């Protein structure tokens, strides 16, 4: 099994890249005046802290993650902020009783889940009726590079969606998961992003690392690896490098 497709540095870098999208994903929670909001799969807690600033002192924001190193970073950043709390836990079961949570947000979590339906049911269980859930997911099958080597690109994306990422098609399946769990008023928005340098593609997508893994795992040959990497480097040097990916933001209520 290959290493997971994120670490602390990756989450911080992509967090800056997605700043405007993140801010929009907070909006469904702004009507909450008191109670509890969960950021499920919170990573280093950057969204927990932002939500606590946005929602005010009558709302407590809980960050839940299974990685103690990431939670430690979140706790250090929160310092003595009594409005936030970090909990070490898997995404299921969620350590709250039925109907006691006023909002749940999960960003780039579902793609890592091996049992997404169970997690959606858990979120539905803990949410209070008529309260919001927001899911933010990367549409990995839509990753596209502007070069002529489409067969190689398809193999790289196949490695990402079928092997590297537990649930690489998650963005395409979100509405189905939500309907099956009993959520309603489902709304979906697409946010396209264009990356114009190879350096940014490495920073936000780890693309050269992924390309190497794709070859190391036999999804492409070394020759195909070299061709695709060379095409990206040539495009970058000539000023016409471009790749695109979209992020899906889905909102709904219990």
Number of strands: 8
Query: From the helix content, strand content and strand pairing, which structural class follows?
Result: alpha/beta
Per CATH, the architecture is 3-Layer(aba) Sandwich
Portion in strands: 15-25%
Overall pLDDT confidence: 92
Task: Write out the CATH superfamily name.
Answer: Vaccinia Virus protein VP39
User: Do you know the CATH topology?
Assistant: Rossmann fold
CATH classification class: Alpha Beta
Pfam family, one: Methyltransf_25
GO biological process, one term: methylation
GO molecular function: methyltransferase activity
InterPro entries: Methyltransf_25 (IPR041698), SAM-dependent_MTases_sf (IPR029063)
Helix-strand blueprint:
Elements: H1 8-17, H2 19-25, E1 35-40, H3 46-55, E2 59-65, H4 68-78, E3 84-88, E4 103-107, H5 116-126, E5 132-138, E6 144-145, H6 150-164, H7 170-181, E7 184-195, H8 198-205, H9 207-216, H10 222-238, E8 243-253
Notes on the protein architecture:
By secondary structure, the chain is an alpha/beta fold. Helix content is 44%, strand content 22%. The chain is built from ten helices and eight strands. Strands 1, 2, 3, 4, 5, 6, 7 and 8 form an eight-stranded mixed sheet that branches. Keywords: Methyltransferase, Transferase. One of its GO terms (biological process) is methylation. This is Methyltransferase domain-containing protein. Residues 37-129 form the Methyltransferase domain.
């Amino acid at each position: 099994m290959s290493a997971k497709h994120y670490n602390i540095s990756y989450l911080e870098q992509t967090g800056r890249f997605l700043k405007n999208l993140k801010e929009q994903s907070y909006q469904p929670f702004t009507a909450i005046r008191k109670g509890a909001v969960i950021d499920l799969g919170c990573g280093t807690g950057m969204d927990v802290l932002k939500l606590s600033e946005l929602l005010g002192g009558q709302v407590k924001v809980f960050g839940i993650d299974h990685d103690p190193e990431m939670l430690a970073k979140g706790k250090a950043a929160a310092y003595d902020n009594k409005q936030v709390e970090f909990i070490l836990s898997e995404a299921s079961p969620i350590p709250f009783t039925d109907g006691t949570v006023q909002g749940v947000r999960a960003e780039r979590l579902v793609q890592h889940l091996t049992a997404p339906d169970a997690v959606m049911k858990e979120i539905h269980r803990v949410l209070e009726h008529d309260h919001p859930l927001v899911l933010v997911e990367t549409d990995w099958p839509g990753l596209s590079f502007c070069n002529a080597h489409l067969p190689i690109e398809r193999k790289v994306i196949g490695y990402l969606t079928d092997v590297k990422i537990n649930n690489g098609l998650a963005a395409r399946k979100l509405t189905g998961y939500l309907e099956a769990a009993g959520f309603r008023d489902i709304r979906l928005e697409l946010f396209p992003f264009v990356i114009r340098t190879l350096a940014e593609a490495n920073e936000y997508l780890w693309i050269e690392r992924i390309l190497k893994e794709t070859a190391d795992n036999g999804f492409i040959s070394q020759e195909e690896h070299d061709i695709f990497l060379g095409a990206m480097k040539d495009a970058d040097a000539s000023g016409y490098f471009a790749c695109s990916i979209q992020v899906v933001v889905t909102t709904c209520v219990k």
